[in-house]
C-alpha cells in the first residue's frame, strides 16, 4: 500500500502540473532568468569566472526549488487537500515520499534545461563530457535539497509567514549538500577530471540523502499529526 | 488490513492550542446506525472535535476509542474506516470530478477505482459533468463531489462538517436521504451543522457545544430549534 500511495500522489501531482503548468513555468522562468543575469554580469570575452558555473548552477537550482516547494504545498493548502492525504489509510510517510518525488521530478526537468544553458553561457562544456557523473551529482544533490525542503514546507503549511520561514530554516540545513554539489560539479570542469574527488563529493551527498530522508520519514507523522 | 468497530467513545477529551482551550472535557458515545449532531455557535469547537475524531489532531487530554482500537497503534487501518467531509472540500480544482474520485478511491485501496468513481458520480447526479474540471463547478456541485469523495470507501465513521453548505433544496433533501441510508447501513455519522431545519428529525443524538464545553447531550431530540435555544440560553 505504501508504494501504491506514493505512486498515486506522484501521478496526481504530475497530472495537476501538466494541466496547470503553473509551477513548472514559473520555476523554469525564474531559473533561466537567474542564469542569464549572472552571465551578463560575470562573463567577459566569452569566459566566466573559474568554477563559477558550478556555483551558479546550484544557486539557480536551489532558488527555483524553493519556489517550487512553496507553490506545491500552497496548492495542497488552498483546498486543505493535505488533510485528505493525511487521512488516507496509508502510512503517512507515503505522503511525504510522494510529494518528495514530485519535487525531484520537477527539478529534474528544470535541470535538463539549465545544464546546457550554463554550459553554453559560461563555456563550461566540461560538465557535459561526463554525463554519468553530472547526473549522479545532480540527482543526489537534488534529493538532498528536496528531502529537507519537502519536510519543512509541509511543516510550515499552516504558518502565516511560511514563505519567509522556509528559506530561513531550509538553507542552513542544506549547506553541506550544496557544498558537496558545487564542489562535485566544479570537479567536472577541471581539464583532467579526478574521479577520486568526484567519488568523495558524491559519497558525501548520498550520505546526506540517506540521513535526511531517514530523519524525514521518522518525523513526518508526528509533525503532521498535530 | 482494515479493522472495524461498532462504537465510538469520546472520554473526557480536551484540546488546547497553546494557551487557548478549543475543547474542554467532552464526553459522548455513538454506536452503529446512529446520526449524532454536534451543534453549537461558531467557535464552539465542532470542527476541532471532528479533526480529532478523524485522527488529524491528538487530544491534549482524554481518550478517543474506536471500539477497542486506538489511533496510535492502528492508524492506517483505522483511517480506512473513516470518511471526512470538511468545511474545505478536499478536492483538486485542476482535476476533473472523475479524476478526483478515482484518486481518492485508489488511496482508499479500492479494487476498481474507476467503477467506484463512476457509481459515486451517478449518486451525485454529475455523471454528465464527470470529465469537467472541478474548478468549473458551482459550490453546490463541488459539495456533492466532496461528499462522494468522503464516502467513496463506505466508511464506518462518517464525519461531516456543514454538509448542507451550498446545496439547493433538492440536493439537501437527497443528502438527508443519503445520511439516513448510511445510518440504516450501520454507519456512525457525526454531523456538525448550523442548519437546524434540515437536521430536524434526522439526528438520533445531539451534543451541544458552547465555547469548547459540552453544555448538554440529548437523545432523540424533538423540536430541535427550541431545544437549541433553551440549551444555549442557559448560563
Q: Which SSEs are present, and which pair or pack?
A:
The complex is a heterodimer of chains A (226) and B (235).
Chain A: H1 2-20, H2 22-42, H3 52-78, H4 81-86, H5 93-121, H6 131-155, H7 162-187, H8 195-225
Helix pairs in contact in A: 1-5, 2-3, 2-5, 3-5, 3-6, 3-7, 5-6, 6-7, 6-8, 7-8
Chain B: E1 7-17, E2 20-31, E3 34-39, H1 46-53, E4 61-66, H2 71-79, E5 82-85, H3 97-107, H4 113-124, H5 139-151, E6 157-161, H6 169-184, E7 188-192, H7 196-199, E8 205-210, E9 213-219, H8 224-233
Parallel strand pairs in B: 3-7, 3-8, 5-6, 6-7
Antiparallel strand pairs in B: 1-2, 1-4, 8-9
Walkthrough of the structure:
Chain A is mainly alpha-helical. Chain A has one domain (2-225). Chain A is built from eight helices and no strands. Chain A has helices at residues 2-20, 22-42, 52-78, 81-86, 93-121, 131-155, 162-187, 195-225. Chain A starts with a helix and ends with a helix. With 235 residues, chain B is α/β, with parallel strands linked by helices. Chain B has two domains: 7-81 and 155-233, 3-Layer(aba) Sandwich (Rossmann fold); 93-154, no CATH class. Helices cover 35% and strands 26% of the residues of chain B. Chain B has eight helices and nine strands. In chain B, the strands form two sheets. In chain B, strands 5-6-7-3-8-9 form a six-stranded mixed beta sheet, sandwiched between helices. In chain B, helix 3 crosses helix 4 (113-124) and helix 4 packs across helix 5. Chain B is globular. Chain A binds chain B through residues 1, 4-5, 8, 12, 15-16, 19-20, 79-81, 83-92, 221, 225-226, and chain B through 2, 54-58, 75-80, 82, 84, 86, 88-95, 99, 103-104, 106-109, 133, 149.
